[in-house]
Amino acid sequence: MEETRLCSWTVVRSIFAIFQWWSFNVAVIIMNKWIFQKLDFKFPLTVSCVHFICSSIGAYVMIKVLKVKPLISVEPEDRWRRIFPMSFVFCINIVLGNVSLRYIPVSFMQTIKSFTPATTVILQWMVWRKYFDWRIWASLVPIVGGILLTSVTELSFNVFGFCAALFGCLATSTKTILAESLLHGYKFDSINTVYYMAPFATMILAVPALLLEGTGVLEWIQTSPDLMSSFIIIIGSGVTAFCLNFSIFYVIHSTTAVTFNVAGNLKVAFAVAFSWMIFKNPISPMNAFGCAITLVGCTFYGYVRHRLANQLPGTPRTPRTPRSRLEMTPLVIDKIDDKV
């Protein structure tokens, strides 16, 4: 009886964790798109900077004030030698994601982000000479095919937005690969990651945002019809972005790797459907079919990596077989990388 009750509570907790993760993720995406499209606040660098500031404050409160998570100590030398380069790539990744949202629909942007597993494998193979099992390569075929079909049939295609999303995938892959060497020896959770990286990212982005968008922001402030509600939405998107980081920490500790994998890909489908209901961007049947192929491919990719990670002892492994729960998940979920 006690075991049944414990099992039921575990299921309920997992469902709740996934639901709140989905909710925060969709809220961040929709709010950012709303800021660019409905509020006519066309300044992705400034929006990203607001997110970094809110996340820096939120992480400080969670760790130093509320003590939700213990602070992982990092040597001052390592902060500049390891954390800063990671923060730089992290900053580029977030900015490119917001730039792509400025120019292309949420559905198209989310589908392109699903290309991240392919860019990660290709970069590791070409630059770092990593070997991958043939099943990994085979699992990438539907992802690449789905992306190509979606791009060709996208009715709201924008070259600049497409390139920003694609280079965002490369930035995500680069950050993930660099993390293996630069953060070796540090077991960061999502809150500690934000605690160290968000202040650096704010410092990196503040000057470019001021120089490139400062004049435009001032003009927008002077012409905005409802300034107070607009500010609330912009700041709210930053607060929600931090809450998303905290929700990722909760869902990782409440679900298995396989559940996290499947839920992550369903999250993308949920975000696409919800954004379509709000913004009504045109989606052709072939475009939707390409998006579905991509998500199925991402799920298959995660399944293959999970199977390779759990081979019987003595079975040959590929050099990059993931061993931790986070590594077993498909990188398309963006684990804790591009949510700030």
From TrEMBL:
<dbReference type="InterPro" id="IPR004853">
    <property type="entry name" value="Sugar_P_trans_dom"/>
</dbReference>
<keyword id="KW-1133">Transmembrane helix</keyword>
<keyword id="KW-0762">Sugar transport</keyword>
<dbReference type="Pfam" id="PF03151">
    <property type="entry name" value="TPT"/>
</dbReference>
<feature type="transmembrane region" description="Helical">
    <location>
        <begin position="231"/>
        <end position="251"/>
    </location>
</feature>
<keyword id="KW-0813">Transport</keyword>
<feature type="transmembrane region" description="Helical">
    <location>
        <begin position="194"/>
        <end position="211"/>
    </location>
</feature>
<feature type="transmembrane region" description="Helical">
    <location>
        <begin position="43"/>
        <end position="63"/>
    </location>
</feature>
<dbReference type="GO" id="GO:0015780">
    <property type="term" value="P:nucleotide-sugar transmembrane transport"/>
</dbReference>
<feature type="transmembrane region" description="Helical">
    <location>
        <begin position="12"/>
        <end position="31"/>
    </location>
</feature>
<feature type="transmembrane region" description="Helical">
    <location>
        <begin position="285"/>
        <end position="304"/>
    </location>
</feature>
<feature type="transmembrane region" description="Helical">
    <location>
        <begin position="134"/>
        <end position="153"/>
    </location>
</feature>
<comment type="similarity">
    <text>Belongs to the TPT transporter family. TPT (TC 2.A.7.9) subfamily.</text>
</comment>
<feature type="transmembrane region" description="Helical">
    <location>
        <begin position="83"/>
        <end position="104"/>
    </location>
</feature>
<dbReference type="GO" id="GO:0016020">
    <property type="term" value="C:membrane"/>
</dbReference>
<keyword id="KW-0812">Transmembrane</keyword>
<feature type="transmembrane region" description="Helical">
    <location>
        <begin position="258"/>
        <end position="279"/>
    </location>
</feature>
<dbReference type="InterPro" id="IPR050186">
    <property type="entry name" value="TPT_transporter"/>
</dbReference>
<keyword id="KW-0472">Membrane</keyword>
<dbReference type="InterPro" id="IPR037185">
    <property type="entry name" value="EmrE-like"/>
</dbReference>
<feature type="domain" description="Sugar phosphate transporter">
    <location>
        <begin position="17"/>
        <end position="301"/>
    </location>
</feature>
<protein>
    <recommendedName>
        <fullName>Sugar phosphate transporter domain-containing protein</fullName>
    </recommendedName>
</protein>
